[in-house]
Amino acid sequence: MHIVVLAEFAVASGGAEKVAVESARGLAEAGIDVTYLQAIDGPADPLLDHARIRRIGLGNTDIWTRPAHRAALDGLWDAAGAARLGAALDALPVRPDLIHLHQWTRSLSPSVFSALFARGLPVAATLHDYFLACPNGVYYRFDTAAPCTLKPLSASCIAAPCDGRSRLHKLVRVGRSVALRTALKEHPLDLIHVCDASVARMGALLTGPGFTHHRVDNPVRVEKGPPADPARGEAIAYVGRLTREKGADLVAEAAGAAGLPALFIGAGPLEASLRARPGVEVLGWQAPDAVWDILRHRARAIAAPSRWYETGPLTVYEALANGLPVVASDRSGACEKVVDGVTGFTVPPEPEALTRAFAALGDADRAERLGAAAHARYWAAPSTLSAHAAALIAVYERILAARGAPRRESGRIASAA
């Protein structure tokens, strides 16, 4: 089997890129030939150094680094980017069995779908966000700091000043969504959801005979070891971009109210205001290996209090794998992995609820019990790279069987059954 993994970056600069890179590696280790198409020029993660992975750069640039008028037009339909993608696919020495798309919003635009469908290949897309349905991509209203309840592209949706940047960006994104719906019309697309909440929410937003929905957990690249000792840690820790929609401000407020220090690893627009708070330490971005070395020694628990319907922040899974309790927003897809009161707490992203959860973690013995249970339950059914790859391969085989398409295995045509 030969799979093309298409993403905009080849380094783990965010959750989607991290999953794309790790998926490619997991597939290669499972014996699948992988071509990794990197849309935007830049470095590559060492995980992509594998005999079964061929990496190809498309030479694109980030749309939003281009002049404003050019960015707006290319965001709607980047014909040149689509042409480069098509040429790269046509130049492959072995025709792929399936194309797995992880990102398309930073350089590829909706034109990516026309280039993919024109090749007559099955296309699967992992839904790391809501861009296939929602113009601003997160189904969240930045103007009201609350999840959206509007029907995407309805009159009320188009009129809503919900974009995190400006009304102009909203108009461009509405235009992009219209172009996207046109590109997807009457073409089959297999959708891979990373959490049960995404299946329910996006399944309701993306309906029709062209869509087929699948469910696969994200990979968690954590080596099994002894659980951390959260009783020794003192801080409520947060890892990620420091924004309101991800709830970074809620962590600082609730930790202070609970009498615990707050530790932030990441950067973003709230950084200056967080640094100004007493009892708050901001370390900035850290190398992946350094993150968990820090947290295993200093964290009492990990907080992921997203205000938006986040599909599955990887930090939650990694914390459980390390034996650290998690306090997760009940709006986050990852909360389905947290057993309330057993491995952590699932709460609304509100100061009072978070304060109560953090205060409960002030009891060192309870934190220790929660951490031990988190570690035991996670490793009873871990989301390892090999488990993730096996689940993906099963999805690919179902897709190929449904299309009646032959698949290639070790350079030979094999049955899709």
From TrEMBL:
Domain (Glycosyl transferase family): residue spans on this chain: 234-374
Cite the Glycosyltransferase subfamily 4-like N-terminal domain residue spans from the record. Answer: 14-136
A Pfam cross-reference name: Glycos_transf_1
Which superkingdom, per the lineage?
Bacteria
The alphabetical list of record keywords is: Glycosyltransferase, Transferase
Q: Does the keyword Glycosyltransferase apply?
A: yes
> What family name appears in the similarity comment?
Belongs to the glycosyltransferase group 1 family. Glycosyltransferase 4 subfamily.
The protein's name is: Glycosyltransferase involved in cell wall biosynthesis
Which organism is the protein's source?
A: Methylobacterium goesingense
